[in-house]
Amino acid sequence: MDSKKKRWGDRKDGRLLRTREPMSIVETFILVDRTGSTNYIQDKVEISKTEEYIRAKRKEGLTGFGLMHFMVASYVRVASQMPAVNRFVSGQRVYARSRIEVNIDIKKEMTLEAPNTCVKIILRPEDTAEEVYWKMKAVIDGEKGGENDSDFDGVAATLAKFPKLFFKFSIWFLKLLDYFGWLPKALLEVSPFHGSFFITSMGSLGIPPIFHHLYNFGNVPIFCAIGPKRTEYEIDRNGEVVRKKYLDYTFSTDERIVDGYYYATAFRKMKLLFNHPEELDVPPEEVAEDID
Predict the structure, then answer these.
(1) Per-residue confidence (pLDDT) for residue 184, from 0 to 100
(2) 144 close to 136: Cβ distance less than 8 angstroms
(3) Distances in Å between the alpha carbon of 152 and those of 70, 163, 216?
(4) Closest CA to 84 of 285, 261, 282, 273
(5) Burial category of 203 from C-beta neighbours within 10 Å (exposed 0-12, middle 13-18, buried 19 and up)
(6) Which of 227, 180, 233, 220 is nearest to 204 (CA)?
(7) Which member of 5, 40, 130, 152 has the greatest number of CB atoms within 10 A?
(8) At 249, is the secondary structure helix, strand, or coil?
């Protein structure tokens, strides 16, 4: 996503932003951790046109295409036009991420005993909804089918075997490496704590979307939770009762990467795509690049 040449101070996963405003620089030293820098927003969106779009995609052969795919594709499109939502904070500095990395929390089976895991989807800002679907499907199907073995589950299983004190030291050491941008690339590739956007669905669980915390380890700046679809009956302009379908969702955001106006504009753009889903069928005319 970021085409600028790497320079001193850049990380494996991002480019250091050098022209930020002074107040923005000071803020990262005042708000030291991600949890303490989190803002929360809850909203809903009317999804009648989105559901029509989803049904059309399924008829085209995109079996299982759903609101999760649509939400991810919407984020990708917004990030292509407003690249600052794909920034992150590490070591009290703000970086422009080199690519779009979406982390998804999934259950391998819908049973109480089935383990949770996380998959990482690598996407391009030019990706259409269909391209997002196929990339997500390949990774998720591979994980559920046991075909993927280069994931964080193996790393976690190894760490869990350590004695408690050594385990605690290991996590501290990993945080230290991460602070200075020295984590091995292989670990960054599979870490669910590093990425552009984390999304989870409560729809299959039948509960409202939660306000999920951001992780102090790693650098994910935005966490999205979506709930189940629901129906509301409203009065239209003519005084008639109309039936509408809504999707509830929440965002937890790191306020240090952009200001509230930027976030608000980005979320409005995402919301507009639910009323104009056809825009996701074609790549964006141009892809914006973040500041120097």
Answers:
(1) 92
(2) no
(3) 25, 19, 17
(4) 261
(5) buried
(6) 227
(7) 152
(8) strand
Is the CB of residue 180 less than 8 Å from the CB of residue 10?
no
Cα–Cα distance measured from residue 208 to residue 198, given in angstroms and rounded to the nearest whole number: 17
- What single letter denotes the amino acid at residue 230? R
Q: Which residue has the tokens 């408690």?
A: 164
Q: Which two tokens stand for residue 1?
A: 């996503």
Tens digits of residue pLDDT in 92-107: 999 999 999 999 988 7
- Is the pLDDT reported for residue 150 higher than 50? no
**Residue given tokens 């979506």 in the structure block:** 226
Please state whether beta strands 197-201 and 222-235 pair in parallel, antiparallel, or not at all (unpaired).
parallel
Tokens matching residue 214: 């951001």
- Report the predicted TM-score, pTM, of the whole model to 2 decimal places: 0.91
